[in-house]
Write a structure and sequence with these properties.
Layout: H1 5-30, H2 32-37, H3 48-64, H4 70-93, H5 95-98, H6 102-121, H7 136-152, H8 164-188
Helix pairs in contact: 1-3, 3-4, 4-6, 4-8, 7-8
């Protein structure tokens, strides 16, 4: 789909601002208390979705400035898929935990919509990322370390305790699917769905 330069530029900055808003909202309102209770050494593994909203915004800027790293962009692509899908699944599967009040219900539905978009928006960049086979190891390694941190060192997002024995292997499966599936998508992406950079 062809856009005029001004429309493309407007869409680019809209995406950038929306992701920065997600960063602020996530870091302050969802992870603020967890940061206070977690040792700083584990902070890189704490704010999954806000972190990848921030990284997506940085990926947009780097692509626009023609200084992008394909490894970094692949990391952002796979991470956005993984954590976006994880959030949608968990909020949909454990309604008894996340929908206890009208406000919680509203918030959970808003988060589902935002995280569906988080999964979809990275496909706008797919044809611009030239992924290499060696990219798989560092990306997979970080995600597996993050999964270990989440369920062994307990840096996972707020979730029902009874769900953790299932969520640990489920999250590892998502790591494999997002990393190898993302690699396959990027290898086969030929033309942009919508050119924004």
């Amino acid at each position: 789909m062809r856009l005029t330069p001004s429309t493309r530029n407007s869409l680019f900055w809209l995406l950038f601002i929306l992701n920065l808003a997600g960063v602020f909202w996530g870091f302050i309102f969802f992870y603020g208390e967890q940061f206070a209770q977690t040792t700083p050494a584990l902070w890189p593994f704490l704010p999954d979705c806000p972190l990848f909203a921030l990284l997506f915004a940085l990926a947009l800027i780097s692509l626009k400035a023609r200084i992008s790293s394909n490894l970094f962009s692949f990391f952002v692509f796979a991470g956005s898929l993984k954590y976006g899908f994880w959030t949608v699944f968990v909020l949909s599967a454990y309604t008894h935990f996340y929908y206890q009040t009208p406000f919680q219900s509203f918030l959970s539905i808003a988060l589902i919509i935002a995280h569906i978009w988080m999964c979809l928006q990275v496909f706008l960049l797919a044809s611009l990322i030239k992924v290499k086979s060696w990219h798989l190891a560092p990306v997979l390694g970080f995600f597996l370390l993050s999964d270990y941190s989440d369920y062994v060192w307990l840096t996972h997002p707020i979730a029902p305790q009874s769900a953790l024995p299932f969520l640990f292997p489920f999250t590892i499966a998502l790591t494999l699917l997002a990393t190898f599936g993302g690699y396959w998508v990027l290898k086969n992406a030929k033309r942009p769905l919508l050119r924004i950079v």
